[in-house]
């Protein structure tokens, strides 16, 4: 595979088991494609220093709520990390180096900062892939609380999560158990890349959108919708051979897909251009 150095590093990192993937490193390797001068070690050291600061503030009795309060005080009051309400779809919000430098991000990238500091202070937390709004929670049996890092570490109970869903979608949404299930490092990275994919597609930056999809497919090689989307982008770039390969693969695996007729029309157009 003729990968850039950043892509090679990303591929090597995600080639570990889920438990062994270094989430911060992999996220920084995503950013390194956009910022080639980025030194991942600088940002890993910054996370180490933040964790050391938090450790100095913690009491010996580490009750989950007290640890969360300490983390919140340090990150959101002392360092002034914040959710970017004013420019939510700025791609910089999805790059971990930029989030650390600017102390500004979106739910998932701010959550990665929080998770990485929590890991370094031996306070286990997990990501929660709630639709439309990423959360985290302490990984202790029966704790039953969630943390909304985008909103300054607000502590939520399940009923609050349901209210948050209604706020995101503008209507009442029934809270299903899977909405509050923990997600893996691979899923977190794929969600970060999906955000970038959508941002770049909407901005018409097709090559950057393709780059995001390529990395999603390194994480989940069998993801049919990603192959379809990449095929459509290749079609827009008039890269017919690659477009045909992805779209034919999509139809082979999803012959009854709702958009199958449209995809067959695209393939027919390309075949007529041969």
Biggest pleated-sheet summary: 3 strands, antiparallel
Compute the number of strand runs.
Answer: 7
Task: Note the overall shape.
Answer: globular
What distance lies between the first and last C-alpha atoms, to the nearest angstrom?
27 Å
Tell me the structural class.
Answer: mainly alpha
Overall structural domain count: 2
What is the beta-strand fraction?
Answer: 5-15%
pLDDT averaged over residues: 94
> In sequence order, what are the helices and strands, one letter per element?
HHHHEHEHEEEEHEHHHHH
Total of helices? 12
Q: Strand order, biggest sheet?
A: 4-3-7
> What's the CATH class of the largest domain, please?
Alpha Beta
CATH-derived architecture of the largest domain: Roll
CATH topology of the largest domain: C8orf32 fold
* Rg, nearest Å: 20 Å
Low-pLDDT segments: none
Roughly how much helix do the residues carry, as a percent range? 55-70%
Organism: Lyngbya aestuarii BL J
Domain Protein SirB1 N-terminal: 42-193
Pfam families: TPR_9 (PF13371), Transglut_core2 (PF13369)
Protein name: Tetratricopeptide repeat family protein
């Amino acid at each position: 595979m003729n990968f850039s150095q950043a892509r090679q590093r990303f591929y090597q990192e995600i080639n570990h088991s889920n438990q062994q993937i270094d989430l911060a490193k992999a996220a920084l390797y995503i950013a390194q494609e956009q910022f080639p001068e980025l030194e991942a070690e600088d940002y890993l050291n910054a996370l180490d220093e933040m964790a050391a600061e938090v450790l100095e503030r913690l009491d010996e009795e580490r009750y989950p709520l007290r640890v969360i309060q300490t983390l919140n005080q340090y990150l959101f009051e002392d360092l002034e990390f914040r959710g970017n309400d004013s420019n939510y779809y700025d791609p910089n919000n999805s790059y971990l180096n930029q989030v650390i430098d600017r102390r500004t991000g979106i739910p998932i990238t701010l959550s990665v900062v929080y998770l990485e500091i929590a890991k370094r202070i031996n306070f286990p937390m997990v990501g929660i892939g709630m639709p439309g709004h990423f959360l985290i929670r302490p990984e202790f049996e029966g704790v039953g609380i969630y943390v909304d890092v985008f909103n300054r570490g607000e502590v939520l109970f399940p009923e609050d999560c349901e209210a948050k869903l209604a706020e995101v979608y503008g209507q009442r949404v029934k809270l299903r158990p899977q909405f509050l299930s923990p997600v893996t490092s691979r899923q977190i990275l794929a969600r970060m890349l999906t955000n970038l994919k959508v941002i770049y597609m909407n901005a018409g930056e097709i090559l950057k959108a393709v780059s995001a999809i390529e990395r999603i497919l390194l994480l989940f090689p069998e993801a049919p919708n990603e192959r379809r989307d990449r095929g459509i982008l290749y079609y827009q770039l008039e890269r017919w051979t690659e477009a045909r390969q992805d779209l034919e693969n999509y139809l082979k695996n999803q012959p009854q897909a709702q958009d199958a007729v449209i995809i067959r029309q695209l393939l027919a157009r390309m075949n007529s251009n041969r």
